[in-house]
């Protein structure tokens, strides 16, 4: 969708500040349901895990629900708003909040561009006074993570929490993978050792189990993209599990961008046979061909959408489940509940580690599959 | 709703950083890594192929050796067989020759004995005749009174001579 309509959506959401929390709550519930539906559709072997997820999500939802039913008097009076905490954690932000207090927040730089003022860079600290209350700065206003200039939307290129995570992720990938590459140069013709032997099986796995079988003999052209994709998502997923970390791969902007890259690569490498199958499917009775054409054209776009939503949902849902379970202790203000929920959180965290790998694998696998489908030579018909 | 609306800024940053990351990693990491992996796999494959080839060569060498050995064994058997036959032949020939020789010697001996015997008989006959003449001389000289007795005696001598 074009950026303008995105902003309209966001403004639309801001027009209903009172219903915002209940809306996001329903969203998180819907996200769980979507996770279930998408997993069930795409990966049958993941349905057990998804079922557990959905169940826990439902439990957490119903557990938080009573707390929010009387939102106005109970949760706020107790000073803990689980919904706000959870949604705040999984969303992007202009500040990086680690803990409450004077030094617990990292104020990230704001970069905005508007037709009126041009490009401007300043600290996000300007949006807060000494008591951490939101204030306007120089006509700019930060509201629900969106910056407006005198009520007009601006192009926000700020180094947000997720952009910072993105930079950390990219730096980490570069440092680690370049040292692996150096090891290959240093140990040329020798057995791998150290960090090289840790990454080699993963690289070989992606090459031999994901890329080669799906793309075929001309796989080498696409291998760098797929390896970058796999390690970017894997590292992003794992970094996102760290305490205080931003939810990078669980952000729909990130997954959408990756899916768009896959979409572009797939369709630009599509051969005559690929387009032939879409626009004039062979082996189908003539009257059915226009219907198939419609289905195929929709299919071109459902592929990146499914990629976008699958990764976003899997990671965000995991974060919501973890945070919901942690929130139980604060909602019930009970040590016993805290102990039990901590145990469950430990268990879910282990599953999340698994999910981090599986989602990186699945995104790469489907990308390879789509590229393979677009570049396959059909010798029949 | 905010969860589902992608932020424009993050999309731009993600696109820029991911593309940069892709180019940097492709050039500096994936290219050398994938090339070294391929190189190593090829070297392992070629080493395995060479080993397999050497194994096949060894096997063919071994079969060659066995063939040579078999031929040599056959050659040896042939030579032995021929030698044995030759020996037997020589043996038989030698025996035949020896027998022939012996036969000839026996024949010769027999002939010699025969002539010797004939000569001896001749000698004996001459001797006997001498003796008879001597006896007759003595008889004639000594006693020729009794004609009858003389006649008998002479007959007896003659008879004896004929018997011989």
Describe what you observe in this structure.
The complex is a heterodimer of chains A (381) and B (164). With 381 residues, chain A is mostly helical. Helix content of chain A is 65%, strand content 8%. In chain A, strands 4-3-8 form a 3-stranded antiparallel beta sheet, with no helix packed on it. In chain A, strands 5-6-7 form a 3-stranded antiparallel beta sheet. In chain A, helix 2 (20-42) runs antiparallel to helix 3, helix 6 packs across helix 8 and helix 9 runs antiparallel to helix 11. The radius of gyration of chain A is 23 Å and the shape is globular. Chain B is an all-alpha fold and 164 residues long. Chain B has one domain. Helix content of chain B is 93%, strand content 0%. The radius of gyration of chain B is 63 Å and the shape is rod-shaped. The interface between A and B is large, with 61 and 35 residues.
Keywords:
heterodimer, A: 381 residues, mainly alpha, 3-stranded antiparallel beta sheet, 12 helices, globular, disordered N terminus, B: rod-shaped
């Amino acid at each position: 969708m074009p950026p303008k309509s995105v902003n309209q959506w966001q403004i639309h959401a801001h027009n209903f500040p009172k219903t915002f929390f209940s809306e996001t709550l329903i969203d998180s519930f819907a996200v769980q349901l979507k996770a279930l539906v998408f997993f069930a559709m795409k990966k049958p072997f993941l349905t057990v895990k998804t079922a557990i997820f959905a169940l826990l999500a439902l439990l957490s939802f119903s557990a938080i629900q009573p707390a929010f039913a009387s939102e106005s008097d109970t949760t706020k009076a107790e000073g803990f708003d689980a919904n706000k905490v959870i949604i705040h954690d999984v969303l992007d932000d202009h500040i990086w909040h680690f803990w409450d207090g004077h030094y617990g927040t990292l104020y990230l730089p704001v970069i905005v561009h508007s037709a009126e003022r041009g490009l401007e860079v300043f600290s996000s600290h300007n949006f807060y006074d000494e008591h951490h209350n939101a204030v306007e700065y120089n006509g700019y206003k930060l509201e629900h993570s969106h910056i407006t200039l005198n009520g007009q939307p601006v192009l926000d290129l700020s180094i947000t929490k997720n952009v910072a995570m993105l930079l950390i992720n990219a730096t980490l990938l570069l440092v680690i993978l370049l040292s692996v590459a150096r090891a290959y140069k240093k140990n040329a013709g020798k057995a791998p050792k150290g960090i090289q032997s840790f990454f080699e099986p993963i690289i070989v796995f992606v090459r031999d189990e994901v890329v080669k079988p799906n793309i075929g003999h001309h796989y080498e052209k696409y291998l760098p993209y797929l390896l970058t994709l796999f390690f970017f998502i894997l590292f992003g997923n794992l970094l996102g599990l760290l305490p205080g970390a931003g939810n990078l791969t669980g952000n729909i902007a990130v997954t959408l961008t990756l899916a768009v890259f896959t979409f572009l690569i797939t369709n630009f490498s599509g051969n005559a046979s690929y387009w032939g199958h879409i626009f004039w499917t062979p082996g189908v009775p003539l009257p059915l061909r226009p219907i198939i054409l419609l289905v195929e054209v929709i299919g071109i776009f459902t592929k990146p959408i499914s990629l976008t939503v699958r990764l976003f949902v899997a990671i965000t849902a995991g974060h919501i489940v973890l945070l919901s379970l942690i929130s139980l202790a604060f909602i019930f203000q009970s040590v016993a509940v805290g102990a039990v929920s901590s145990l469950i959180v430990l268990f879910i965290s282990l599953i999340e580690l698994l999910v981090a790998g599986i989602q990186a694998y699945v995104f790469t696998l489907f990308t390879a599959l789509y590229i393979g489908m677009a570049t396959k030579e059909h010798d029949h018909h | 709703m905010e969860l589902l609306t992608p932020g424009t800024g993050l999309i731009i940053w993600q696109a820029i950083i991911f593309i940069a990351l892709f180019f940097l990693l492709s050039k500096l990491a994936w290219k050398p890594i994938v090339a070294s992996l391929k190189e190593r796999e090829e070297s392992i494959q070629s080493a395995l192929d060479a080993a397999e080839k050497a194994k096949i060569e060894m096997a063919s060498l071994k079969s060659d050796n066995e063939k040579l050995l078999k031929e040599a064994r056959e050659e040896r058997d042939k030579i032995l067989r021929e030698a044995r036959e030759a020996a037997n032949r020589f043996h038989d020939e030698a025996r035949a020759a020896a027998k022939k020789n012996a036969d000839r010697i026996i024949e010769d001996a027999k002939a010699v004995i025969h002539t010797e015997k004939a000569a001896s008989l001749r000698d004996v006959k001459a001797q006997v005749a001498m003796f008879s003449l001597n006896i007759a001389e003595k008889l004639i000289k000594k006693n020729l009174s009794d004609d009858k007795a003389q006649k008998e005696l002479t007959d007896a001598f003659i008879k004896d001579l004929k018997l011989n």
